[in-house]
Amino acid sequence: MFNLLPPIDHAAYRAGIKAMAPLTPAITVWGIVTGVAMVNAGITIPAALLMTFTVFAGSAQLAVMPLLATGTPLPIVWATALLVNLRFVIFAAASRRSFMHLPWPQRLLASYLNGDLGFALFSRKFANADHHGNPEQWGYFYGLNALNWLVWQAGSVVGFLVGGLMPTDWGFELAAYLALAAVLIPMVQRLPAVAGIVSTAAVAVATVRLPMRLGLLLAVLVGVTVALLGEAWRDRHEPPASRA
Amino acid sequence: MARSTRATSESRVNHFHDWGYLLAAFAGLTVATLVTRGSFFMLPARYALPAQVERALRYAPACALTAIIAQGVLTRDHEPFLTFRNYQWWALIASAAVFVKTRNMVAMIAVGMTVFTVLRLWA
Prior knowledge:
heterodimer, A: mainly alpha, B: mainly alpha, 2 strands
């Protein structure tokens, strides 16, 4: 039998819970909004419950809702979720030092739970630590992420029930796009990113006739390229020191 | 009644009750969560993330979200829908403005849905 948890320092576990506690109102709201938007997109409550307890990635869940609604081929659905999730690869690379010497089942569970907020708080506390991978860090990690998981799932379930009470013919599928815009806006702070999303939007609209929603992937490819070119251009024309 | 809502509600009835499709979709989506969050937790230490790749990865999520939103809001029935009668677009602009100003997600969605509903019923 695998032991899924590394040794945990209980004081650090409580400290992790305490550090996540101030964010619980925000997590609850985001969970409810995601739940409402998913149900408004047309998913049934049993399917939504299964999805939230397996997939456990709010932005990706919302992003694929319109694709699932129209029966988009699964490789496109999965590729879209992968693209939205790619930020987690950066998180994993940044926090791996604290986990990579654990047995693989323990690493797998930890990575499953390593979402946006847990990663942000964990990095803030341990990014400059002298030693990585000890019961204090694991305890803090599980304190953060246990609370995040619990509050997120509770919020989502409330959202499913609230969404189930709303009218289905009022065009409230729009809620999913608005919620995704709330995730998107904080990601777009600088000009290269703005150039990237504007070109993505243009290509996505222009290619909407392509079969199997392939235009989505094409649009992302163009957008990322434009953003990278924009970055290279900025680096050439502006000394790095002048950037915030 | 807005045509856009009817067009999507017809097609979604089938797919969200197709449990074979959904189960396969959720299995792959769970894998998508695991392989991204687990990537560098599971890889041996000798594999690092090259700076150039990290840069591209930083932009991909924003672009993917944008592509979904753009096709959802700016197209209808597989055609670009770029007219003043596109009420979803006005709702998105209004709610984005609210979010940029307040960073309040509930206010943002409430404003967006209100703008959409008011335009749909009375414009």
